[in-house]
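Morning run. Coffee first, then this:
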Amino acid sequence: QQQQQQHLITTQQHCLTTEEQLTDNIVEACGGSDTRLDTVGAVVVDTKADICAAVSSGGLAHKQPGRVGQAATYGAGCWAENVGSRSCDVGVGCTLSGSGEQLIRSNLARTVADGLLLTPDDPGTQVHRIFTEQFIGSPFLVNEGVKLGG
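And here it is:
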């Protein structure tokens, strides 16, 4: 049993060392230690017009222990609805990046999608209005100095 525990510890240390080396290599390839790895998102539409949205965090390079960001929070970092949902003639998909805590508190991806489904005729104006009213002016973010989302 002690040999098995030692093997697990060695394997865990190896994985951590490999992860640290990989992170260092990525940071170096991106231009140096000041480079921040960030969120990436995608929205896709398949041949049947099904819409899917996904978002991924920047990995473990800058992760705080125990933190759950917008990528793992339903409706905060991404949202998608197909044509016909809520009896709408349009579908919507969006992904967001920014301050994860702010995106979570404002549930911004779903809020943007809701607004676009309710008023699909002028999406640019609608997105601007939603960001202004529901993100910048959010009562959940009133104590935040700088708001980061997009």
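The radius of gyration is 20 Å. Good start to the day.
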